[in-house]
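Need tokens for this chain, all 318 residues.
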Amino acid sequence: MRLGKGAKLVDVGLWALAAFALMVAAALAGARLSPVLDVIGQVAVPALSLAVIGAALALLLRRWKPLIGFGAATALLALLLLPQWRPPLPRPSPQAQVTRVYFDNIYWKNRDIAAAAASVAKVSPDVVAMAEFSDAQAPGTEQILKGLPHRVFAWANPRFRGHPRAVIASRYPVTPLGRAYDGPYESLAARIHAPGGDFRLVVIHLTRPWPFRRKGELARQLDVLAQGVGSQPTEPTVIVGDFNATASGALLSRFRQRTGFASAPAVAGDWPANLPAPFRIAIENAFVGHGLTVVSRRLGPFSGSDHRPIVVEVARGS
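Here are the structure tokens for all 318 residues:
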């Protein structure tokens, strides 16, 4: 039976969508071979969402051959995303007390102080960590960090986009530990004296892996971070931040292997915040090590930023 022009266009569109999903799956599978492949692989969740939509359309239109392509892409992407969705984590210790940590790249141009304050208030965190906290948010510091009296600020390079800095604010006492490591990017560390036990909190904001103007810079920063957190190999540690990389990719897989830290499960993506959830990628991440585990990880309410906050509950692991 001859297909009409419209039917042919439908087939071409379906095959193109299936080919895109398969290409992303192949890039993620080969991410260790090239940083370019690793970056392409970061859109695995949006590609998976498109593959599922494409499969539904192919099934509805009875386009069986494209349906096979979508099925293959869906299965492969889901398999490759398992380390991000269901990472191995220790079980929480019986009677372990949970500490709720809120992290947000607040975005240095974000002047919606009311949204930022409401986002934090709705979560009611024990500890707040932020990156790109700049002059735009400074007038609302007390409003945003209400109820979190113990605060540490780390100023970044003043030439970098309006004086952004990392922030740690806690309802529990803190001991400032300065920058977590040396490098031209935001980092801050503090010891949180939580009821469930002291732990070191490290806040970071790493560079973008594109457009590759500084080849290997993100990988170098992760190496420096691994060395920094490894300098005290027995202290319970939580790392939160904007990694500009997904936990299923090669860079953060290597970071886990080097440090022995476990990543928080990241099913829901956080960036860009204005896209529907199935089309966002999870570049805000959390890692725990040296006796800690992640009880839960979820997205926080919209804060006015181009990122969605993440809320991670941590406790002693068994």
